Each structure stands twice: as C-alpha cells, then as structure tokens.
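sorry for the late reply, my laptop died twice this morning and i had to redo everyting from scratch. anyway the thing you sent over, i finally got around to it. pasting the sequence first so we're on the same page, its 224 residues, then the predicted structure underneath. double check i copied it right bc i was rushing
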Amino acid sequence: MKIKSLKLLTKNIRAQKAFYIHQLGAELIDENKTSFQIRVGRTELTFCQSENAHPYHAAFNVPSNHSRLLVPWLKKKNIAVQPLHNEELVDFRNWNAHSVYFYDADQNIMEFIARHDLASSSSSVFDAAQWLSVSEIGMPVRRIEQCASQLSREIGFPVYDAVGDSFLALGDPEGLLIVIDSEKKHWLPNGDAALPADFSAIIEQNGKSFQLDFRNGTLHTDAM
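ok and here's the structure:
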C-alpha cells in the first residue's frame, strides 16, 4: 500500500510549519493562510488549521541503512527522542525494522522507521530529502474487527500484524494503517491516549487508487 497524499489537522499551523520546514528542513510544496503542504518522499503531507485537531501517530519510511543516523540527526536538530523501554533506537525484530519516536509541535507521535525488508538504502547524507514516504497513519476505533473487514472488502488490505483484539496493522511495509482499539490500547512509546483524529488520504493498493476519509471515528472509502 502506498500513501500518495495525507491531510492532517493542526491547532497551531505556525508552529507546525516552523517545525517541519525550518527545524526538520522539509520541502515546502504549497501554503496559504490556513494550510501548508510538504513533501515526504512520494507522499504529499498537508496540515490544515482546525480547533478540532487531536494528536496523531504517523511514521515516515527512511532508507534502511540510515537507522543508526536517526537519533543523532534528531538531537542535532534539538528534537527530543522519546525512548521505548529505555531504547532510543528501537529494534522491532518482528517487523525487521529500526525506528525512533519524537513529538512534533502539535504533540503528534511521529516516527522515523527504517524497514530492512525494503530495498531502500541510500548513499546520500541523511536529511529531509531522504524521507521515502509517509508509511503509517494511526486510526483509533472501537471495533477493529469491523474496520478490518471493511478495508479487506472494499480495498483488499491484508493483515500485516495483529496483537489480540486491540491492534491491527493493515497493508505492507510500504504503507500501513495502524488500527487500534481506542478503549484498550494507547500509543507507543509513552502511553498517550489514542483519540480518534480526523484525516483524509489518497492511497494506492494493487494498482488502484482510493480516497480514505476518517471522520469522528468512522472510516469512509471511495474508489478513484
């Protein structure tokens, strides 16, 4: 699954723009008074001003051979790394990946993840130009089985990983919807509450494009 575009809400668009453009060095694609858009590899990521914003979890794929560069790069940018079980660089062995967590200016739980199953190594110095894509977006719901059934039926999403009745990762290493039960599970690494946070995305699955709209805890899909 490829996430081609993703739109998120923010309560403080100025702070978010300063964080992603000036602090992290992301490429600005477009902006107006109420939104701005940056490039995350093949994904166009847009933040829109809204007082109804809640914290998200999202992840960016980065080159697989850059995992050891992530922690020092963030610290050089004066961004605090959020450890999981006292590990700043987290080894997710069952996913064959290394990742690092941090907060953006809106307290979204962001993650850089180097997935070693992808042929994504780079000889360039790590910076924002090396981001490959938005590879995860969190989707807290109350009935994950119902959501998984809908996505399998309407789009053909496979289950990538599952933990009991509280966690499902749907898709593949290129792109995942992280579906969790908002009443049973919290976000890694600090146990932040998993609040349903509205987003819209255009994704590609099996050569077909779909519009996803997550509003008030309910997902709607449309073929494009």
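The mean pLDDT is 96.
thats about all i looked at so far, will dig more tmrw
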